[in-house]
Amino acid sequence: RRSLPRGRNIQRTATMSSGEKTFPQYGPICVCCAPVPWWSPPDAAEACKDGPRRDAPRLLNSFTKTKVPFVPLDGNRVGWYICGPTVYDSAHMGHARNYVNFDVIRRVMTDYFRYDVRFIMNVTDIDDKIVMRAHLRRSEAMIAAAEDVGGLDALTAPLKALLASGEKDLGEQESLTASLCAAIVAKDPTAVANPDWTVQDGYLALAHAFEAEFMEDMRLMGVARPDALTRVSEYTEKIVQYIQTIIDRGYAYESNGSVYFDVPTFEQSPNHKYAKLNKEALKNVELAMDGEGALAADASEKRVENDFVLWKASKPGEPRWPSPWGLGRPGWHIECSAMCSDILGEAVDINGGGIDLNFPHHENQLAQSEAHYDIKQWVNYFVHTGHLHIDGLKMSKSLKNFITIRAALKMYTARQIRFLFLLHQWSDPMDLTPVQEGDAVTGFQQMEAAVIAEKTFVEFFHSVKGALRGLGCAAGYSVDQEHTWGDEERALSAAIDAARAGVHAAMIDNINTPAVIKSLKELVGGVNKYLGSVAADAIRPLLVESAARYVTMILACLGVAETTGGIGLGDIAGGGGEGGGSDSKEEAMAPVLDLIVKFRDEIRALARSGADAKALMQACDRVRDVGLPELGVKLDDREGGALWKLSTPEELRREAQREAEVKAKKEEQKRREKEEAARKAAEKEALAKVPPNELFKQGEYAGLYSKYDEDGLPTHDKDGEELAKAQRKKLAKTQAIRQ
Q1: How many C-beta neighbours within 10 Å does residue 448 have?
Q2: What are the residues whose beta carbons fall under 8 Å from the beta carbon of 345, sequence distance 6 or more?
Q3: pTM above the 0.70 mark?
Q4: Inter-CA distances, 434 with 367, 411, 449, Å
Q5: Dihedral, CA atoms, 149, 155, 156, 159, nearest 10 degrees?
Q6: Which residues contact 675 (CB under 8 A, 6 or more apart)?
Q7: N or C: which end of the chain has fewer CB within 10 A?
Q8: Which residues pair with 384 in a beta bridge?
Q9: Cα–Cα distance between 114 and 104 in angstroms, integer?
């Protein structure tokens, strides 16, 4: 935990000489000309005390709504807090985009800009939605058990009616459910697994289950673990202490066992400002109330409608913890203030979350923390990721338009989903258009570009590795290989330099991942051009390997490649470590050896039977198209010998399926074109038998005209209007051709 002098980040004076330019690449910027009057940029001299630094990124700061240079509070160290999940249900693609985006930004800040990042994420495991879901599951379980036991309709009926009504009377629901449970146990003591269930334990069991699922989803998506994980349920005592300090400073008050933040008093203080992130915060009372939760108390407890809850007095059916104001539980916003402060102290470099948290959550989080420390600026950079929309609507559980991460991973790989997000700027909104078969979602239209991007890099690495293997220097060097540069090598070197410059410009520009990918693809094109223009035995392996290593390094910074020190994408989803010994080697080699033995036996049998060359070729094709893909190996037939490529069986199956679908579409298109050609030929043949004076009275011309001359040429259209001279002339030509 860092504890800095109060107000340190906003009361600094520049120590650089008048001739020095603190941020020359961004133009003048200092405390006296900040983008907004209440946001103060950190002191660059303090950040550079350990020596000169490379260019810093400009981040889109929600305080200023502009891209501003990032300057850490303390040398190279960065304290970063993001709002984690509220664990009451499975995570969806909206969550995936948010946490993958923050994972990318974190990786870039750590691996590219080389900051020493301490990354904190919370888990909200005390929340109205969790409590209500826990009660609902308990009630539904008891209803199901009662129906199995039978004879308890009189007790199940009122509980079913309460659930159907939508009323949020958890005390009544708890009482009815407990009575039903007691009746079930009286009839059959073994019918209920946990007859002593209470909401105090039940809500946490539910939260833990969904937290574990969420963390596994993140592992599967290749999202790195946070450096510290904070749970609200483990912080209730510290949250109480945090609130008490706010009360002691005069910025909060108790009312009927609850505690509320005094917004007017805070706003009127000369050292404080409310509505830093959202200037309409004081006017948007309805949205502010959404932050109070579904089980919020009567608003009449507040002094003014803009005040928000810090501590909720618990009602019957709700979990509770002791406090000086009575039994209750933390409000939503206070948890992040207390937990972030506990790890990072009174000065935070970056706070982040989805843009939907901008107000009221982050606005209130700021106010609480600045009131607690009585400082002007608690966070220096607020970073928000853009919404994910489904056909223009925000993806959310309340709208029931969400696709879970697990469902998405059945359609695409984690890397493909990460590429999807990388191709869209993290701070911008993003739209997904589902592809459906009936009610089932089978994919997203926007994924096509992501799949193509992944394949571009996969094929690039295969080509590079194949070229290096062909030289006999897979490691990039051979004493027998010539290394002198010619024009082609200088052109490739220039392409590498251009890619590095393009990537760096994109990185410092708010970590612009679409532009980064664009620069890398241009380098891939340069390498492919080089490999295609230089003889295979004249390739300069060190230069090619240098380009491939750079592409690998940047893709690793973006979380779509492993940081193994080699070249290629690798596996990003985590998993077990490498095994060793003969058992693991045998286990790894067994499927390959089985395929080789099976293929050898088949070829021997064909040879003994006198099979022709076609049968032998078909056996070879089966190995290529069926056997090897099941082992994650793809063969590309080329002049001079096939090239093998490593992938995953699942991805090769998907690729084969896509190729089959494309082939089927082409065949269907050919069939339709053939049928259309046959139809037109038949019509033409039929028309050829029609007398010229009857041509415009039938077939495709039937019903188009109402009057004709003596030669059968139309003179009036179907509405009786006389045809123009040019149109009649054109029809006469058509008739003459048919004659």
Answers
A1: 13
A2: 1, 2, 3, 4, 79
A3: yes
A4: 40, 12, 14
A5: -150
A6: none
A7: C
A8: 353
A9: 14
DSSP-derived 3-state class of residue 516: helix
Sort strands 116-123 and 77-82 into parallel, antiparallel or unpaired: parallel
For 537-575, what is each residue's pLDDT tens digit? 899 999 999 999 999 999 999 999 987 778 888 877 643
Please state, in angstroms and rounded to a whole number, the distance separating the CA atoms of residues 449 and 465: 25
**CA 302/CA 260 separation, integer angstroms:** 7
In order of 132, 140, 165, 197, 316, the CA distances from 180 in angstroms are 18, 11, 19, 13, 18
Please state, in angstroms and rounded to a whole number, the distance separating the CA atoms of residues 241 and 249: 13
Q: Which two tokens stand for residue 431?
A: 């739209």
* Dihedral sign (CA 149, 155, 157, 159): negative
Residues 22 and 6: their CA atoms lie apart, in Å, by: 24
pLDDT tens sequence across 73-109: 999 999 999 999 999 999 999 999 999 999 999 999 9
If one counts every other C-beta atom within 10 angstroms of the C-beta of residue 727, the result is 12
User: Radius of gyration (Cα) for the chain, nearest Å?
Assistant: 34
Query: 328: which 2 tokens?
Result: 């209750």
CB atoms within 10 A of CB 263: 23
Question: pLDDT, tens digit, for every residue of 612-670?
Answer: 988 889 989 899 888 888 888 888 887 777 888 888 888 888 888 888 888 888 999 99
559 close to 414: Cβ distance less than 8 angstroms: no
Residue recorded with tokens 């995570």: 91
Tokens 């890099």 belong to 457
Q: Where are the alpha helices (DSSP H) in 538-648?
A: 541-557, 581-608, 613-622
- Four-residue CA torsion sign, 621, 622, 623, 627: positive
Q: How far apart are CA 87 and CA 84, in angstroms?
A: 9
List Cα–Cα distances, 665 to 348, 544, 668, 682, in angstroms: 55, 38, 5, 25
Backbone angles phi, psi at 61, to 5 degrees: -95, 120
Q: Using CA atoms, how far apart are residues 23 and 288, in angstroms rounded to an integer?
A: 38
Q: CB within 8 A of 448, min separation 6: which ones?
A: none
Q: What is the DSSP string of 207-243?
A: HHHHHHHHHHHHHHTTPPPPSEEEEGGG-HHHHHHHH
User: Token digits for 296?
Assistant: 């919020």
**DSSP string spanning 35-66?**
SSTT-----HHHHTTTS--PPPPEEEETTTTE
Structure tokens at 551: 């592409």
CA distance 287 to 356: 11
| DSSP letter assigned to residue 692 | G
* Residue type, position 228, single letter: A
Cβ-contact 361, 289 below 8 angstroms = no
Best CA proximity match to 60, nearest among 114, 30, 97, 101 = 101
| C-alpha torsion angle, residues 725, 728, 733, 738 (rounded to 10) | -170
Determine the 3-state secondary structure of 694 from DSSP: helix
Q: Please tell me the distance from the alpha carbon of residue 695 to that of residue 709, in angstroms, as a whole number.
A: 13
Of 188, 319, 327, nearest to 256 (Cα)?
327
The pair of structure tokens assigned to 347 is 């000065």
- Strand ranges inside 378-533, DSSP E: 379-385, 388-390, 393-394, 430-432, 434-437, 440-444
